[in-house]
Specification:
Layout: H1 6-49, H2 54-74, H3 82-107, H4 114-135, H5 138-156, H6 161-181
């Protein structure tokens, strides 16, 4: 039996640090998905300003979203989950390959206009985020749904682009509220 008072104090500090890391990893998906929605809002603004140049933005957003989801999978639950990371790497490589094939073959063959190529890239990006939300963390599914709504508005009702900015701002506010609400007391 040890009567060393330093050992329990040291382990208490260690468990406090582990608990803190776990709390931060719990909030990581909310922060990252809020950042993803912010990037999507930038895309909406770019699309509203110059629809033809929007394709490059939406295509360029795919690797950024992929890295963010892979980063979250790496820190899933406060610990490294290598199987989840590998699945997310292949998931986003698949999304990237689908976007590349769409742009390389359909667009360059003349089967698809530049605007349609950008919209299909946005749809694939929305699907990738939605599926990452199912398999990694739910906030990514919210990002995917927001991207799908963005695509629908871009196709059907471009005059409502400003509405998307309001919806995006509302989603950011909800994510901020969830982030604040989920703070542990103490």
């Amino acid at each position: 039996m040890r009567n060393d008072p330093i050992k329990p104090q040291s382990s208490a500090v260690r468990s406090s640090r582990t608990g803190s890391a776990s709390r931060h990893s719990h909030k990581t998906p909310l922060v990252i998905s809020a950042f993803m929605i912010l990037l999507a809002l930038v895309g909406v603004a770019i699309t509203a300003a110059n629809f033809k140049n929007a394709k490059a933005f939406w295509v360029g957003l795919m690797p950024v979203y992929g890295v963010l989801c892979i980063f979250t999978a790496y820190h899933y639950g406060g610990r490294t989950n290598s199987a989840l990371v590998v699945r997310q790497v292949f998931h986003w490589l698949g999304i990237g390959a689908a976007i590349y094939l769409d742009l390389a073959f359909l667009h360059t063959s003349g089967e698809q206009t530049s605007i349609a190529a950008g919209l299909s890239s946005l749809l694939l990006l929305a699907l990738g985020c939605y599926l990452a939300g199912i398999y990694v963390e739910w906030p990514f599914a919210v990002v995917g749904i927001f991207l799908a709504v963005t695509m629908i508005v871009l196709i059907a009702a471009q005059e409502y682009l400003i509405l998307l900015l309001g919806i995006g701002a509302g989603l950011l506010a909800v994510m901020f509220a969830v982030h604040r609400w989920s703070k542990p007391n103490g």
